[in-house]
Model the fold of this input.
Amino acid sequence: MRVSDNVLRKLLFYLSDNEFEALVGDVELEALGIARNGVVNYGIVIKILNLAKEDPYLKSLLIKWASENLLQEIPHIVRVTEKHVKRFEKILSTKSKKTKEDRLRYLKRALESLNWELTPEKLEDYILELQEESSNVAQHIAKALKLFIRTVLKDPKLYQAFKVPRSEERIVAEPIELEHVVKVAREIKHLGAKIFFILLAETGLRPGEIIRLSISDVDLVKRRIVIAKISETKRSYISFLHKQTAELIKKEYMPFREKFIDRMSSALRNLGYSEVDIAKWKSQLLPFKEYELRQEIYKAMDKALGRRFRLYDLRAFFSMYMVKQGVSPLIINILQGRTSPREFKILQQRYLPFTEEDLRKIYEEKAPIITIHL
Done:
C-alpha cells in the first residue's frame, strides 16, 4: 500500500535530527557524487581537501575532526627534504673535511634506502638489516642518522628508535613459535598486511625487501621470488612460495589489489603525481603505505597475543624453524640472501651439488607454511 505524502510528512515530523541524517545521508553523498553504491569517489574527496587548505574555516573544522577521530591512528612519520640535508651540511662545516664527507655520504645512503621517509619502525629494521651485513657499516650509518636527527630534525621518538651497534654485536631476536605467527595472521583483516606478514614469515626475507618487490619479481606460476637488491653488494638471489600462498595471492589478494589501484589512481592524479610516478606505484606488489601495513599487523598482534614483536624477528623465526627441520645453515643463508654475490658464485661453480629445483624442493618440504592454517 502506497503511503500518501501527507502521512509521510507526519511520520518525518517525529524523526530526530540524527535519525533524519541517517536516512538521507547516503542520498546526499550520492547526489554530490562523493559516493555511489557505497564506493567513495576519492578524486572528489581530494578536491574537497584541497579546497580546505584555502578556506581557513573549513581547514579549522577539518583539523578539529581529524584530531578527535584520527589522532590515535596517525603514525609517526617524518619526511626528509633537501633543505634538511643542506642544514645538516652547514652544521658539519666545523668538522674536518673527511668527517663531513663521511657523515653526508652515510646519511644520503640511508635516506635513499628509506625513501626519504623516517618512522621509528623503519629506522629500527634498517639498522638491523645493515648490522646483519656489516657491523662496521651499520655503526657509521647509525651515527650519521643519530647526529642528523638530533641536530636537524630534533625528534626524540626517531632518535630513540634505534641504537648505534657496537662492533661485532649480535642481533638479539625474540623467540617466536609457529603457533604465534599463525594466530597473528588469522587476525589481520587488511589483505595487503596479511600478505606482507605471511611473506615475511614464510621466506625469512627482510621487511624492506618484501616492500620493494614489484609484480615482475614474483612468479606465481613457478612460485618463486627474485630479489634483485641494488646496493653496494648488488645482491641477487631467489626465494620461493608455497603452493597455498601462491593461490591466496592469485585468487584473493590480486583482485583486492587491482580494486585498490583502480580507486586510488585518480586520487593520486588529483594530488599532482606524475604518470611516471603512478606507473611505478602500480608496479609494486604491495602498493600501500608501509606504516599502514605495520599498523594493521600490530593491531592483530595486540589482539592475538597481547604483545608485539619486531617484524624483523620473523627473519630469525624462519631461520630457526629451518634449523629445527634439519636444513643446512648454508642452504638457509642462500635462501635468505646472506651470501655475497661473489661468494655465491664460487659456491655455485665449485661446491654446490644442487640446482634451483633442489633448493625449491628443500623449501617446499622444510620451510614454515602459514597459509595452510588460515
User: Anything to note?
Assistant: The first helix runs from residue 5 to 13.
